[in-house]
Design goal:
Helices cover 21% and strands 35% of the residues. By secondary structure, it is an alpha/beta fold. It has one domain: Metallo-beta-lactamase, Chain A, CATH 3.60.15. The strands form four sheets. Strands 1-2-4-5-6-7-8 form a seven-stranded mixed β-sheet. A six-stranded mixed β-sheet has the order 9-10-11-12-15-17, with no helix packed on it. Strand 7, helix 3 and strand 8 form a beta-alpha-beta unit. The longest helix has 12 residues. The protein is globular. The relative contact order is 0.15. Keywords: Hydrolase.
């Protein structure tokens, strides 16, 4: 894992097996809260699990959507006795890998400072996490709702995506003022980006106008 800020780490890049595009990579993020460490998104690398242990472990693991579920989720639960959280509409697929300890279906504030906001569109259970760090920056964890594909901001459409819901989510994003955008999956680029307000609004416009449509693969 690599430290990005005083209270935030990013995992080793993961290149999921079976992907046709070798440049697709996934990341997870360890965030230090006053109550302890939480993990957001997916961390499968066992060496990263050891580093998480060195950093004090985790007491909660949050998924932004079910595509982040994998064998590592259960291993983390067992090793750190941590609670796994996801949207209730992601529960079925997540359960194939690990048993969720709790779910949510509306905006909530967890641990006194972590904003949990359902943002459907990419998947029905997609969720965004917003955190104003005491060190001065506001982090926005968007999962795969928006992403970078070779320097181009995109939305990501999969068979279960809903374009109307995604449009509403992007409108909601425009009311936010993050300093750092953190993504679960990207292609050919790191999974985080510092932004100004002007850059944030511009990248949302670019993403909305640049859908990466994976609903039908070549040959299907």
């Amino acid at each position: 894992m690599k430290q990005l800020y005083e209270d935030l780490w990013i995992s080793t890049p993961e290149f999921p097996p079976g992907e046709r595009d070798p440049e697709v990579m996934m990341h997870g993020f360890l965030l230090k809260l006053s109550r302890g460490n939480v993990l957001i998104s997916r961390v499968e690398d066992h060496e990263d699990h050891n580093i998480i242990s060195d950093l004090g472990g985790i007491f909660r693991h949050y998924l932004t959507h079910w595509h982040e579920a994998g064998p590592g989720a259960r291993l983390l639960q067992q090793r750190f006795n941590s609670a796994l959280y996801c949207h209730n509409r992601a529960l079925g697929p997540v359960s194939s890998f690990a048993e969720a300890d709790d779910t949510f279906n509306q905006a909530e504030v967890h641990c006194g400072s972590l904003h949990v906001v359902p943002t459907p569109g990419h998947t029905p259970g997609s969720t965004t996490y917003l955190y104003a760090s005491p060190y001065g920056k506001t982090y926005l964890f968007v999962g795969d709702t928006i992403s970078l594909s070779h320097q181009r901001w995109v939305t990501v459409l999969v068979p279960e995506s809903n374009e109307a819901d995604l449009k509403k989510t992007l409108e909601f994003y425009r009311a936010l003022r993050p300093d750092v955008v953190l993504m679960g999956t990207t292609k050919g680029h790191l999974s985080w980006q510092e932004v100004t307000m002007r850059e944030w609004l511009a990248l949302l416009d670019e993403a909305e106008n640049s859908p990466l449509d994976l609903r039908q693969r070549p040959g299907e």
